[in-house]
TrEMBL record:
Residues 466-509 are annotated as: Disordered. One of its GO terms (molecular function) is GTPase activator activity. It is found in: Cytoplasm; Nucleus. Residues 1-77 form the WPP domain. It comes from Acer negundo (Box elder). One of its GO terms (cellular component) is nucleus. Transmembrane segments: none annotated. PANTHER family: RAN GTPASE-ACTIVATING PROTEIN 1. Its main location: cytoplasm. The lineage of its organism: Eukaryota, Viridiplantae, Streptophyta, Embryophyta, Tracheophyta. Pfam families: LRR_6, WPP. InterPro entries: Leu-rich_rpt (IPR001611), LRR_dom_sf (IPR032675), RanGAP1/2 (IPR045203), WPP_dom (IPR025265), WPP_sf (IPR038214). Residues 473-496 have a biased composition (Acidic residues). This is WPP domain-containing protein.
């Protein structure tokens, strides 16, 4: 960055050339700002591989470099070029100390780290203290600084900022920060990874009670129980502008889910809702489904790893009509079974025209529900990712799913049908479909019952693009029952075509 900022160019002739010292300081500020923006994006995509964050980093750093070049060197009063002390790029608005290893921060270090926030007329609107554990001393340094800048703050990240502290100290630090920040008008608040529980939630009461403009709220991995969920519901006065609510990996349960459902009901602008791994059963699932029906702007829905069961799955299918803009739906490991999965598939086919991601892994879905799933998938021409892993679709189901993907689906990049008791014929068809998609990246059919001959056939299909085929190290060519006769029956091409035609008729009906 420094070299680019000090290299003569058309722009430098117009705006002036920066000195090496000036460019080095600007480059440091650009790197920190771009890294913070990219990190924020990565936090919102916990299942991503980081590639989008890298792209955002490159784009943001390029934009900031161009702004610095156009700003040109800063001149002294006597006309000489100089860099004003602690000057930052024109739109430097993010203060982030989360980089580096996770560590405790004490009073002396806090004085140094938080120094830039004391600079008069600084333009920071987002602060991130994540990954640094604040004790009493550091909190005493931070409080007056936060009081002085709270009116300009719009984004606050206090995720994982009391790690390893005794409960009494952690609660007092949270109270201190909450009181200092009371009255600030935030659009973004992240309190994740703090083992809050009800005591922690109420320790942030002053801050939460003063929030009327939140657009993004993150409470992930906070040990939020039924009582803590009720406290969140009580404390936040308004969620009318809320667009993102992430509530992953908590201990909410059914009663807590009812409280979260109350928040959802008061969030008509909600676009992205995550309530995964929260121990929610059928009653809570039904409550959430009914509340979500009021969120007509929903684009992303993530309810993975709960205990919904069939009843909650059916209730959710009835709510899907309210989501015309839905693009991502993650409903894996919900105990949906065939009845719940079919109800959802029928609704999604009808009401989500722009669906890009469909995840129904681990739901005990059998070939009996495959026709409904295939009809839904065939209609979703914008699909990029399909995950039906860890079900019981077998060859009959896999063949129907494969057939549903043959026509169109030009944006498809990933298909996962691992651990589905699929044999040679199903694996072969899925492979043939995958290699014919122009931008396809990964087919996962590991953990199935594909014969050695079938494995050779699949690998041969991918011989020009082996990286598109996932590992097959957990495949069991013998099958769970070592039924050779069943293998021969399934591999009979004429019989397969006959079965497919019969299933297709059923699908169309």
């Amino acid at each position: 960055m420094t070299k680019n900022l000090t290299t003569p160019s058309i722009l430098s002739r117009k705006y002036g050339l920066l000195s090496k010292e000036e460019a080095e300081e600007d480059a440091k500020q650009i790197e920190e700002s771009a890294f913070a923006v990219a990190s924020q994006n990565y936090e919102k995509e916990p299942d991503g591989d980081g590639s989008s964050a890298v792209q955002i980093y490159a784009k943001e750093s390029s934009k900031l470099m161009l702004e610095v070049i156009k700003r040109g060197p800063i001149a002294k009063d006597d006309g000489e070029q100089m860099m004003a002390e602690n000057a930052a790029p024109a739109n430097q608005t993010i203060f982030d100390i989360s980089g580096g290893r996770r560590a405790f921060i004490e009073e002396e270090e806090a004085e140094d780290l938080l120094g830039p926030l004391r600079e008069p007329r600084n333009s920071y609107t987002r602060i991130c203290f994540s990954n640094r554990s604040f004790g009493f001393g550091a909190a005493r340094v931070a409080v007056p600084i936060l009081v002085s800048i709270k009116d300009q703050l719009t984004e606050l990240d206090l995720s994982d900022f009391i790690a390893g502290r005794p409960e009494a100290e952690a609660l007092e630090v949270m109270n201190m920060f909450s009181s200092a920040l009371e009255g600030c008008q935030l659009r973004y608040l992240n309190l994740s990874n703090n083992a809050l529980g009800e005591k922690g939630v109420r320790a942030f009461g002053a801050l939460m009670k003063s929030q009327n403009n939140l657009e993004e709220l993150y409470l992930m991995n906070d040990g939020i129980s039924e009582e803590a969920a009720q406290a969140v519901c009580e404390l936040i006065p308004s969620t009318e502008k809320l667009k993102i609510l992430h509530f992953h990996n908590n201990m909410t349960g059914d009663e807590g889910a009812v409280s979260i459902a109350d928040i959802v009901k008061r969030s008509p602008m909600l676009e992205d809702f995550q309530c995964s791994s929260t121990r929610v059963g059928s009653e809570g699932g039904v409550a959430l489904a009914e509340a979500l029906a009021t969120c007509t702007h929903l684009k992303k829905l993530d309810l993975r790893d709960n205990m919904f069961g069939v009843e909650a799955g059916v209730a959710l299918s009835k709510a899907l009509a309210a989501f015309p803009d839905l693009t991502e739906v993650y409903l894996s490991y919900l105990n949906l079974e065939d009845e719940g999965a079919e109800a959802l598939a029928v609704a999604l086919k009808e009401y989500a025209p722009s669906l890009e991601v469909l995840d129904l892994a681990g739901n005990d879905i059998t070939a009996n529900a495959a026709a409904s799933l295939a009809a839904c998938i065939a209609a979703k021409q914008f699909l990029t990712k399909l995950n039906l892993a860890e079900n019981e679709l077998k060859d009959e189901g896999a063949l129907l799913i494969g057939k549903s993907l043959v026509e169109g689906h030009g944006q498809l990049t990933e298909v996962d049908l691992s651990v589905n008791s699929i044999r040679r014929a199903g694996a072969r068809l899925l492979a043939q479909v995958a290699v014919n998609k122009p931008g396809f990246k990964m087919l996962n059919i590991n953990g199935n019952f594909i014969s050695d001959e079938g494995i050779d056939e699949v690998k041969d299909i991918f011989k020009q693009c082996p990286d598109m085929l996932g590992p097959l190290d957990e495949n069991d060519p013998e099958g769970e029952d070592n039924d050779e006769e069943a293998e021969e029956d399934v591999d009979d091409e004429d019989e397969l075509e006959s079965k497919l035609k019969g299933m297709k008729i059923k699908q169309e009906e």
